[in-house]
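User: Quick one: structure for sequence A, then sequence B.

Assistant: Sequence A:
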Amino acid sequence: MKFIEYEKLYPLKFHPIYMERVWGGTMMSEVLDRQLPPHDAPIGESWELVDRDEVKSVVANGELSGATLNQLMAFYGSRLVGVKAIGKKNFPLMVKLIDAGERLSLQVHPDEKACELLGNGAEPKTEMWYVISSRPGAKIFAGLSGRATKIELMDMLDSPDVERLMQTYPSQSGDAYFITSGTLHAIGAGNLILEIQQNSDTTYRVNDWGRLGTDGKPRTLHKEQGLKSINFTNRTSPRVAGAVGTKNFNRKFDVVKLCPFFKVSDLRLCSAWGDDTGSGESFHLLTAVKGKFRIGREELTAEIIPGETVLIPACFGRYSIEPLDTDEAVIVKTTL
């Protein structure tokens, strides 16, 4: 692979990696007009940005086409990811699209303390969901209700009635949910979600609603690990309400602000928005939700459509986000 000088780095796009899931849906093609590859089981996830030993994103545009994200990490180091991620072997975040044709399992991700207790390669995961689109009646289940007890949860864990112990929300486009590690959760059917998460693939399913896997057998549950991972003291609402109405001027809303793993903003744009990676503290990830965008500066630009994510290297400096075809375009920005 021939690399370019870091001064010539540009906004990077990556090929999506599609994952078959028994609960997968059709909203990626219906809402985002994605041309999905042939598949035997439903497509439930698109890994838009990933750098793990078992799967790695590949650059889709420009001179670095064909390079993996991990190869860029190894060659450019902090020039790519910023000083906040110095020393990391892998890119610190993952970006996914979740297409829920059916309700996902009731599950939990461990925090660092639980990972130390459980071992077996467990990795902590805090994540954020941004609702791109939802069908009428779609729901989000996120966090235990204020009155639910551990004993009640253990008694009802094998029953579909366990959902009565959950904080339940009607799903609405533009809403976000900050799912800290230790939060019991499930994405309801009829949701198309942008997920920003720590680079982890550890999930403990505690109830799968009686569903059978693609092999016709019940999927494995992880009740013991899950119960050891749930934070029973956290009953705060994880919902971050989306912006109301449209305006004829640019707006920025903080979605996730006080988090050590990532920060997320919701940008509502009617005209070009100037931004800057500054002194190279962190890369910027920009995901189009509504409308098309041209991102970059001078000849170093990339265009993205809804559902696509672009990576702005930490060394890039000043750039613009220009909406191309809608009255108020929406883009989600993520940094460390």
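Sequence B:
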Amino acid sequence: MDIEEYVKRSISEGKNKDEIIEKLGSIIQYYKNITQHQAEQLSDAVISEVECTQQVQTPIMDYYKSNIHMGEFGVGSRGQGDFYVHSKIAEIIENTPTDAIVNPTAQDDGGVVKVEDCNYITTAIDGIHSRLSDYPFLAGFHTARATLRDVCVMGAEPVAIISDIHLADDGDVSKLLDFTAGICAVSQLSGVPLVSGSTLRVGGDMVLGNRLVGGVGAVGKSDSIPTARSNAQVGDLILMTEGSGGGTITTTAIYNNYPEVIEETLNIQFIKASSLINDYDNKQDIHAMTDITNGGINGDANEINKTTGLGIHLYYDKIKKLVNPEVYSMLEELNIDVLGVSIDSLMIIINPEIKDDMIKLLQENNIKTDIIGKVTDTGHTYIEYDDGCEKLVPKFREAAYTPIKKVVDELYDTSFEENKVIIDNATKSAIDKKNKIVKKIMEKNEQ
């Protein structure tokens, strides 16, 4: 509960101070074991702070108001809206004159910089799955594994993990410890140390409740060009390893009462597979790697289309057989599209000449692998079924995998194209503001 936002809205709606104090006091007492007088004291202090900030007028504190909400536009839901906003974030970064081998404009899994003639440093960060707040060990485990995976698919060897944990004011401190234990389980299994981090409260004193948010990052090193999506070539074959899911599948299992599926997700097979591939002798024939996470293979394939301008042809039966049977059975029973949800498989785009070597290498190490498609020149993704072939188009959101997501899918009726224009304007405003502030600081430093 964001009590600062509550007060701001109440003031804008014209509610008087006594009414706000009374209602906010009741809200605070719902969360905290304090007296009515103490709750009213807190309420009065919040109102004073909000009233003070509303008197502060300086351009740097303001921002372009799009009036488009995160949920309304599908940000964080791994669909068209989410991909579009990420492209706008990348636009701001592209407008910033700094050097990188791979940055967010490539919409890839990690970013890469070159630090010396033969060394490449890869970084990645993943946020805690929003529905795993009450299951901190699982949140830590899957977030740590995800960020290591994002480093691995760029062709790098992970060397360090970092953590950023934010727990709301009423959260149990043990959540921090359990979350860290989840990260350290992956650290111990992978041999990559957790080296630093930050621990804060969500919103300081202004957010009540016990919500856990934050992220886990990783750093990797490599002495060769990263295996970014942009390296894919027409005629390449696409391999896929077996996927058992991560945070998304765990959340699906928890909120749909499939506890037996949770343990299926607890492994580091993906990191093991990536390490084998990154140590392969003819590494130049491995053109690109990615994980099947962002809205499932539907989202990832279409992101490759946009990044490269190339097409992808997929075989549904091959994909289906490479999803963990327990996971696939759950998705089928819940009528969740296996193509539209993160299954945490590894997608490897290779020169056809090494397909037999690559499949043998992985299968000899107990990693189930097969050819699931090829790269074409169509510019789109098509998927082949037993009875025909159809174009695979990314949806506005990833497949709804919890009861509330099924309801949310029906809530909003907005114009995607109209909202894109507004977000374009907000992006331009942010770039202009950044450039103006940078120029002012640089001029001050020259004095």
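The chain has a mean pLDDT of 89. The longest strand covers residues 157-167.

User: Thanks, that's what I needed.
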